[in-house]
Write a structure and sequence with these properties.
- Chain B: GO terms for molecular function: ATP binding; ATP hydrolysis activity; branched-chain amino acid transmembrane transporter activity.
- Chain B: It holds the Pfam family ABC_tran.
- Chain B: It comes from Candidatus Nitrotoga fabula.
- The structure holds two protein chains of two kinds.
- Chain A is mainly alpha-helical.
- Chain A has one domain.
- Chain A has 13 helices and six strands.
- By secondary structure, chain B is α/β, with parallel strands linked by helices.
- Chain B has one domain: P-loop containing nucleotide triphosphate hydrolases (Rossmann fold).
- Chain B contains ten helices and ten strands.
- Chain B has a six-stranded mixed beta sheet, with helices on both faces. Chain B has a four-stranded antiparallel beta sheet with strand order 2-1-4-5, covered by helices on one side.
- The longest helix of chain B is centred in the C-terminal third of the chain and has 16 residues.
- Chain B starts with 9 loop residues before the first strand and ends with a helix.
- The chains are: A mainly alpha, B alpha/beta.
């Protein structure tokens, strides 16, 4: 029983020193990228509940991120002149996203597959377009200009937007946000794990596998599906609030369809329904484009002596190519939950053999 | 309509169901007394599965009545029925392939909240189905067809049903396995569970049942004791292949 604890201790130490290590080795920009990666991981884990656990294809998931972000922005900026504390605004944003999740879920309960995807896609766009246009007749969202000068996150006396020095270690804003986001990411991971192994988690799987049989078991399809939408949306809203506080600025642009697709890619690429897979997918899909952005320019210089293709467009090209290759090579995702299947059958095989021997 | 001697557990009265313009059920009447094993036989498209689905609350019906233990099922949702002791094993077994055998069985007790008795029942089930005990940690999708059918039966039993509705339990199984499944069905019946068995394999169904109903194009055309049906010339020619 020593080894699992050792593993956890090592992971904890790595996570604690990661921002300093990254800062020293790659520069502060990469710490910021890790912060964003964690926001995306929270989103991906939220979407994983809807898509991975409950099997409901949601193409407008970023709308809940937007709801959380705008909730935070409106209650914490000169836009409405409100400056509410972080611990009130963040749960409020998550709750509001949860309500939107139920609002979207309720009319789509009878829809499946492609039809559900189209409706959720539409919902995502409706939210974005609303945010874009709610600047007239009464200016609520400030339209396409977005809301700026959002108050930085304050936790007690600590402002996450200042630099602190403790025992010679410099904690810059990106470091401070790192630890806050890490805390929330771990929370989301723990909730996801608990859900997976719960009565509700099994009800989601049952519903995804065979709706008729699930109903015959006494599972209320409507209630359980709404719960998936609500839980997923809550995580999205949470990530949204953190995003607004971190960025200090939100605009409708950040919540386009592409973002929904990116989060969905993280879930699918990593392996639907498997938390470790989703974590991997999230990290890869944030790190990969950044690495390509920074790497493709110098690489071209090295190969051809000049920059032939704009790194920005090459980045998306390579990104798309990578996705296609991975999906061809590992259609179930990089780290699919089916692994459980092979583990289990292998185990039962040995048990069966052992019984035959005895 | 004949009035059954025993107070029926399930009473279907002039039930009509239509899909779009097609009348799948054109007014059928039948009943099941407590403890009875009833076979509903008929060819493909006769309306057998539709009847089950209507009782199970999975499709709406346009006219008629379904009474279960003096309760009208008109406005009862599918997922509420199991709490009333009405369990369905759907066509194609409906196993949850990505859950383990044990998780599947526990799913059968989803509607129950009595934790300690559920644990006891699970052990009883494993006693009844040793094959499932051996494979309790295996994903249900990796079981053979026969094992899956056994598991579906076991799962339904985990809800402690009063009336068990089985839709084509022999479908897609090897003859040897079919015999085992029907043996199990007979066992369940002797323990006092009422069973409504829908089968295309008429001979097998009538051999285990006490009474049978023959369905044709949305109507019940013959209703009699199972033994009489097995002897009847009409049934033999049409459904038993003699």
């Amino acid at each position: 029983m020593i080894r699992p604890w050792l593993g956890i201790v090592i992971i904890a130490i790595v996570l604690m020193i990661l921002p300093f290590f990254t800062d020293a080795l790659f520069g502060r920009g990469w710490v910021r990228i890790i912060d964003f990666a964690m926001l995306y991981i929270m989103l991906a884990l939220g979407l994983n509940i809807v898509v991975g656990y409950a099997g409901l294809l949601d193409l407008g998931y970023i709308a809940f991120f937007a709801v959380g972000a705008y909730c935070y922005a409106l209650l914490n900026s000169p836009q409405l002149g409100l400056h509410l504390p972080f611990w009130i605004v963040l749960p409020l944003g998550a709750l509001l996203a949860c309500i939107f999740g139920v609002l979207l879920g309720a009319p789509t309960l009878r829809l499946r597959g492609d039809y559900l995807a189209i409706v959720t896609l539409g919902f995502g766009e409706i939210i974005r377009i609303f945010l874009n246009n709610l600047n007239a007749p009464i200016n609520i969202t400030n339209g396409p200009q977005g809301i700026s000068m959002i108050d930085p996150i304050h936790i007690g006396e600590i402002s996450l937007n200042k630099t602190y020095e403790i025992f010679g270690l410099v904690f810059s804003p990106v470091h401070l946000h790192y630890y806050l986001f890490l805390g929330f990411t771990l929370l989301v991971i723990v909730i996801s794990l608990r859900l997976q192994d719960s009565r509700i988690g099994r009800a989601w799987v049952a519903l995804r596998e065979d709706e008729i049989a699930a109903k015959a078991m006494g599972i209320s399809a409507a209630k359980i599906k709404l719960l998936a939408f609500a839980m997923g949306a809550t995580f999205g809203g949470l990530a949204g609030g953190l995003f607004a506080g971190f960025q200090g600025f939100v605009s409708p642009e950040s919540f386009s369809l592409t973002e929904s697709i990116t989060v969905l890619c993280m879930v699918v690429l990593g392996g639907m329904g498997n938390i470790r897979g989703v974590l991997l997918g999230g990290m890869l899909l944030v790190a990969l484009p950044e690495a390509l952005r920074h790497g493709s320019g110098p690489a071209q210089q090295l190969l051809f002596g000049k920059t032939l293709v704009d790194p920005e467009s090459l980045r998306m090209l390579l990104f798309g190519l990578t996705l296609i290759i991975v999906m061809l090579w590992k259609p179930a995702g990089l780290w699919p939950s089916n692994q459980r299947k092979s583990e289990l059958t292998a185990n039962t095989g040995t048990i069966a053999r052992a019984q035959q021997d005895s | 309509m004949t009035i059954p001697e025993l107070k029926p557990l399930l009473h279907v009265c002039d039930l009509k169901v239509s899909y779009g313009g097609i009348h799948a059920l054109k007014g059928i009447n039948f009943h099941i007394a407590p403890g009875e094993l009833i076979a509903l036989i008929g060819s493909n498209g006769a309306g057998k599965t539709t009847t089950l689905k209507a009782i199970a609350g999975l499709i709406p019906w346009s006219a008629g009545k379904i009474h279960y233990r003096d309760m009208s099922l008109q406005h009862v949702a599918a997922h509420q029925l199991i709490r009333e002791g009405l369990a369905l094993v759907p066509e194609g077994r409906g196993v949850f392939a990505q859950l383990t055998v044990e998780e599947n069985l526990r799913m059968g007790a989803y509607s129950r909240s009595d934790k300690s008795t559920i644990a006891n029942d699970l052990q009883d089930i494993y006693g009844l189905f040793p094959r499932l005990a051996e494979r309790h940690m295996q994903l249900a999708g990796t079981l053979s067809g026969g094992e899956q059918q056994m598991m579906a039966l076991a799962r339904a039993l985990m809800s402690r049903p009063k009336l068990l509705m089985l839709d084509e339990p022999s479908m897609g199984l090897a003859p040897q396995m079919i015999a085992k499944v029907f043996e199990t069905i007979r066992n369940i019946s002797t323990q006092g569970v009422s069973i409504l068995l829908v089968e295309q394999n008429a001979r097998l169904a009538l051999e285990v049942a006490q009474r049978g109903y023959v369905m044709e194009r949305g109507l019940i055309t013959i209703s009699d004791n199972a033994a009489n049906l097995l002897d009847s010339d009409v049934v033999r020619r049409a459904y038993l292949g003699d």
